[in-house]
């Protein structure tokens, strides 16, 4: 993997307030205070695919009962998540599982850089929370028809899966139930804009994910 | 006074550049709330007035004759002034009235955004003030603004209403949907039985 200094995807970077209403920082500050108030067993971190999960009924149905916190922010790339986790979003909590889902927004980065960014996050989580297991979700395909981002995301998954195979404190989990159909298309019934999941899409992702998290929670704590 | 003499960049039709490379800029289908009214949802995250104008000029009004068009756009026009944004919205309303002379155009006010007071709140409020004054000139246009419902006495917006201080939660949508639904039902009830219930 690329060394941190030369990989922008693996360099903690806050999001610039280019629009002018400070929303990214407001959300980060809110997450940091949630860490002081709550005792989650599971923390989800990542981009809009994590954040929007919280807005669907399936969150309350499957994940609230497991005492989960949701630290997703739309638009985040690996370097943004890295910054947030370095600056308070893992403090004062001791979850058993961290679910990490990020990488699709790393525009301009190579698959190697993105995978490097993801592994940097995995390492950071292990340093801060030595007893937690990190579940890294595969980056989903996107776009209605085949396109370069699908290839990039598939390559990221391959690299990350390889890198994780030698670790005991983290594992790769593929949540793609087969969104790409036989003609190469993705249906708007699964992703309404060919990137973000519908309720139907989340159902297909969250059921196996929930089962996996439950089985991790039921294992004795790792040392 | 309406913009229109000088070129207003917010009223220049422009499709979205496929910068990310997966061609995903496409129409979305409406899921739940207004389906019983036979509604279509042509909303696209990130769109500016220019993008909406382009879409309407390039197919999204073909072959349909809705009774009502609900228009909600302007918060993403980051490169434009409040006057330009309001001018862009009026340009869209004008286009809709030209193409659909019998339709009512319901223009929704731009919501406040950001957890604390900030320049974008002021800008969106200024757009709303201009719309209030300019839209009555288009006989078919109505303006509905629920902005005040979202700002608490300490000036903050709650994440219970906007999970990222921009996008609405289900609770936030409920605040908007009630008055909007009432207005739409009122408009639709005014129309003849045989053409009832067509909404974009």
From TrEMBL, chain A:
Indicate the segments forming the SGNH hydrolase-type esterase domain, all copies.
Answer: 44-204
Gene Ontology CC annotation, any one: cytoplasm
The UniProt function text for this chain reads: Alpha1 catalytic subunit of the cytosolic type I platelet-activating factor (PAF) acetylhydrolase (PAF-AH (I)) heterotetrameric enzyme that catalyzes the hydrolyze of the acetyl group at the sn-2 position of PAF and its analogs and modulates the action of PAF. The activity and substrate specificity of PAF-AH (I) are affected by its subunit composition.
Belongs to which family?
Answer: Belongs to the 'GDSL' lipolytic enzyme family. Platelet-activating factor acetylhydrolase IB beta/gamma subunits subfamily.
Q: Where are the transmembrane segments?
A: none
Reactions catalysed: 1-O-hexadecyl-2-acetyl-sn-glycero-3-phosphocholine + H2O = 1-O-hexadecyl-sn-glycero-3-phosphocholine + acetate + H(+); 1-O-hexadecyl-2-acetyl-sn-glycero-3-phosphate + H2O = 1-O-hexadecyl-sn-glycero-3-phosphate + acetate + H(+); a 1-O-alkyl-2-acetyl-sn-glycero-3-phosphocholine + H2O = a 1-O-alkyl-sn-glycero-3-phosphocholine + acetate + H(+)
Q: What is its EC number?
A: 3.1.1.47
Q: How would you summarize the oligomeric state and partners of this protein?
A: Forms a catalytic dimer which is either homodimer (alpha1/alpha1 homodimer) or heterodimer with PAFAH1B2 (alpha1/alpha2 heterodimer). Component of the cytosolic (PAF-AH (I)) heterotetrameric enzyme, which is composed of PAFAH1B1 (beta), PAFAH1B2 (alpha2) and PAFAH1B3 (alpha1) subunits. The catalytic activity of the enzyme resides in the alpha1 (PAFAH1B3) and alpha2 (PAFAH1B2) subunits, whereas the beta subunit (PAFAH1B1) has regulatory activity. Trimer formation is not essential for the catalytic activity. Interacts with VLDLR; this interaction may modulate the Reelin pathway.
Query: Which stretches does the entry tag as region Disordered?
Result: 1-22
Which Pfam families does this UniProt record tie to the protein? Answer: Lipase_GDSL_2 (PF13472)
Enzyme class, top EC level, equals: hydrolase
Chain intervals with Polar residues compositional bias: 1-10
Q: Which GO terms describe its biological process?
A: lipid catabolic process
What molecular functions are annotated in GO for this chain?
Answer: 1-alkyl-2-acetylglycerophosphocholine esterase activity; platelet-activating factor acetyltransferase activity
Q: Which SUPFAM superfamilies match?
A: SGNH hydrolase (SSF52266)
Task: List the keywords (alphabetical).
Answer: Acetylation, Cytoplasm, Hydrolase, Lipid degradation, Lipid metabolism, Phosphoprotein
Q: What is this protein called?
A: Platelet-activating factor acetylhydrolase IB subunit alpha1
Q: Where in the cell is it found?
A: Cytoplasm
> Does Lipid metabolism count among this protein's keywords?
yes
């Amino acid at each position: 993997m690329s060394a941190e200094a030369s990989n922008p995807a693996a360099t903690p970077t806050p999001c610039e307030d280019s629009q002018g209403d400070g929303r990214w920082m407001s959300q980060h500050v809110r997450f940091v205070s949630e860490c002081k108030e709550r005792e989650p067993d599971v923390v989800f971190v990542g981009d809009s695919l994590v954040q929007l999960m919280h807005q669907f009924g399936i969150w309350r149905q499957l994940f609230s009962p497991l005492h989960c916190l949701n630290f997703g922010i739309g638009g985040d790339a690996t370097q943004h998540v890295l910054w947030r986790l370095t600056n308070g979003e893992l403090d004062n909590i001791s979850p058993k599982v961290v679910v990490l889902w990020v990488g699709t927004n790393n525009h301009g980065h190579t698959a190697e850089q993105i995978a490097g960014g993801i592994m940097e996050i995995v390492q950071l989580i292990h340093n801060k929370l030595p007893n937690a297991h990190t579940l890294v979700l595969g980056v989903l395909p996107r776009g209605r028809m085949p396109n370069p981002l699908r290839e990039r995301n598939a390559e990221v998954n391959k690299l990350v899966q390889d890198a994780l195979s030698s670790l005991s404190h983290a594992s790769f989990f593929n949540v793609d139930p087969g969104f790409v159909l036989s003609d190469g298309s993705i249906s708007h019934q699964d992703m309404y804009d060919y990137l973000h999941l519908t309720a139907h899409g989340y159902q297909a992702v969250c059921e196996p994910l929930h089962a996996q998290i439950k089985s991790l929670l039921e294992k004795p704590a790792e040392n | 006074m309406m913009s229109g003499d000088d070129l207003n960049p917010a009223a220049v039709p422009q499709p979205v550049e496929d910068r990310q490379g997966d061609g995903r800029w496409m129409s979305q289908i409406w899921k739940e709330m207004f389906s019983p009214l036979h509604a279509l949802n042509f909303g696209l995250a990130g769109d500016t007035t220019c993008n909406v104008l382009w879409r309407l000029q390039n197919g999204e009004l073909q072959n349909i004759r809705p009774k009502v068009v609900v228009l909600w756009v302007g918060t993403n026009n980051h490169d434009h002034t409040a006057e330009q944004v309001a001018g862009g919205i009026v340009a869209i309303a004008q286009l809709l009235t030209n193409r659909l002379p019998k339709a009512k155009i319901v223009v929704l006010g731009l919501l406040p955004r950001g957890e604390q007071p900030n320049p974008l709140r002021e800008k969106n409020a200024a757009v709303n003030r201009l719309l209030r004054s300019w839209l009555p000139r288009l006989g078919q246009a109505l303006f509905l603004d629920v902005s005040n419902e979202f700002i608490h006495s300490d000036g903050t917006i709650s994440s219970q209403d906007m999970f990222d201080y921009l996008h609405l939660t289900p609770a936030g949508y409920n605040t908007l949907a009630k008055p909007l639904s009432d207005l739409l039902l009122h408009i639709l009830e005014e129309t003849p039985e045989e053409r009832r219930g067509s909404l974009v």
